[in-house]
Structure formats: C-alpha cells, structure tokens
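Let's do one together. I've listed all components of the complex below, 381 residues spread over two lines.
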Amino acid sequence: MAYINYYEILGIEKSATESEIKKAYRKMARKYHPDLNPSDKEAETKFKQTNEANEVLSHPESRKKYDTHGKDWKHAGDFNKARQQQYSGNYSDFFESMFGGRGQGSRGGSGVGFRGQDYNAELQLDLKEVYTTTKRTLTINGKNIRLTIPAGVKNGQQIKIKGQGGEGINGGPKGDLYIKFSIENSTEFKRNRDDLYKTVDLDLYSAMLGGEVTVETLDSKVKLKVKPETQNGAKVKLKGKGFPVYKKEGEYGDLYITYNLKLPTQLTTEEKELFNELQNLRL
Amino acid sequence: MMNLESLIPLQQLCVHYDIEMSFLINLNDFDLIEIRTIEHSQYVHKDYVVHIEKMIRMHHELDINMEGIDTVFNLLKKIETLQEELITTKNKLRLYEE
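Okay, and this is what the predicted structure of the assembly comes out as:
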C-alpha cells in the first residue's frame, strides 16, 4: 500500500486554500466524471482518486491529519477509529487505513446520495456461440449475474445492465454494469455486420463442366449447384444464410461464397496428353 | 390513446430525486426531455429517466448549467456515433487481418 499524494492528484500546492481545493476538485471532476467519460476505465480511476483527494483535503480535520501523518500513515491507525463507519468500497487502502474507509460525500456530508461506481467487464465469446441466443452467469465482485446474450451481438458491442454496479454512497442509487463483448472467430467464416463470407474450394472439372458442392453454413449444410465455366473467385450469395440480426428474431444476413479453383497436381502421363489435346483444340 | 404505464408523473420524479419542478421544466425548455400533459397532469416517458438521472448528476455534482448539459449531451451523442463507427470499421478491418 503506497502513500497517495492528494495534493498532486488535485494539482495544487500544499498551501492551497479551501476555495483553491474546491476549484481544483470541480475542474478535475468535470474532466473525469463517469457521465462525461462513459466506459473509460482510466477516467473512472482518476475520478475515484479525485473524489478521495477532495474527501480528505476539503475537511480541515482530515486534512490536518493527512498533513501530519500522511507519509507515516501506518502509525495513524488509532487516530480516527471513532469515525470508522460503513466501508463504501470506493476508497483506496491508503484512505481506509487513515480514515477508516468511509467517505463523507463530496458535498460535505449533506446527506445527499451519490450514485455508485459503474463496473466494466469484458466477456469473450466465440462467433459460433453468438450465432444463437446464449445464457451466461458472470461473477462480478462475488455476485452472480445471469445474463441472456441475444444472438447476433457484435464484436466490441457493449450492453448496460442497470443497477448491477457498485453500491451507492449515502443511500444513492447503485451504479450500472457495462459488459463489452469480445468475439473471437475460430470458424472459417468471416463476418461483416450480419453477413458472412466463406471461401470454398472447387475442383477443375466442376468449375468447367458444372456440378454440385456441399457448403457448410454455421448451423447446417447447403447443396449448391455450380454453373458450367465458373471462374476462379466467382461469388455466390446465399440469401438469409448469414448471421442473425441482433434483437430481430428470424432475420438473418446473407452468406457470400467465393469459389477457389483447385487445379489438379501430380498429373499422370495420360492426363498430360489429354490436357495437351485440349490445348491444341483451343489453338 | 397514450399508454400511461410508460409515463412517470413529474411530481413523483421530483420527490424521488429531491429536485425542484423548475429543473425538469428547464430540461423541457432545452428540448432535453419531453414533458407531456394529460388531463392537467404532467408526465415524462420512462425512457427519459436514465437521461434525467445523468442530468441531475451533472447539475448537482459538477455545477453544469442547462446550456452546459445541452452541449455535453450533444457531444456525448457524437462520441457514441463515432464509437459505433469505429467498432464497425475495426470489425471490417478484421476481415482482412484474419
């Protein structure tokens, strides 16, 4: 546990007056307030530090104690045991050691409730998992939260679960829980929004003469007719065989198949002769 | 016919959040919320509650006035749109990186 320089956090001198502290706090709070910096963890941490610094420095009694014992906080433990009340969980270990871990609220203990801290979590899922609506149980700060993830959720998408963040201070409302989805793709499909893309190998003879290929989609198999004289790189669109559209049940994007022509190798003498014949026919 | 279940009386919001009615009227004047009057009672749609909570915090915790809240909300909306665009672009980029 390290000593925290509250003056440095607020960007003020140790000799700062009460109004200078207030001004510095307001400035920092406006810069780092979670409402103005949604989903910004760094801002959230800085806002927490700013609140803590203000909590200590804006009260003459706690400021005096901090100035006297600050660097020797380990010896200051008994000083304020009488003040020790409920721990809000929003303060550093350093603060807790010196002041009993209780915030008075940045409005000077007026009894006004402050909203709890927003929590941020990242959930890693595979593309196949979000092809259908899926359920997960997350453990956030020791609490199990059941979550239904609608099919079609996108990589980087964030959802908010109201009231599942930190406890409010002074009876204020709870914060919210933000969950960001990180979608890994271990499939052979590529995804762009709700459309899927896949490359399918095609043998020379099916490409030249036409035929049939079986293509695996994410949840089934589809037989595709190949037109004669299909070129390498030709694309086919399978309507409605793409990814589910988020929160639009029954709606799907499209699947685009690109043919990759595989030429035969290790030709036999007879095959070579036949290809020569074909070549001569074209001359 | 208006569905009253999705509307919250202003009076109830004032009591719950310990705010003056004038604060909500001001938000309405700045088009930040929409107050509806039904049979002499004023309501806001429940979808506005999240925004109202945010605006109360901005006003009380950060001393931001109505003009400031209006500006902040407009900028936050722009940030949100840009972030969505960024996610879409990053996901498109992944198509070529994979």
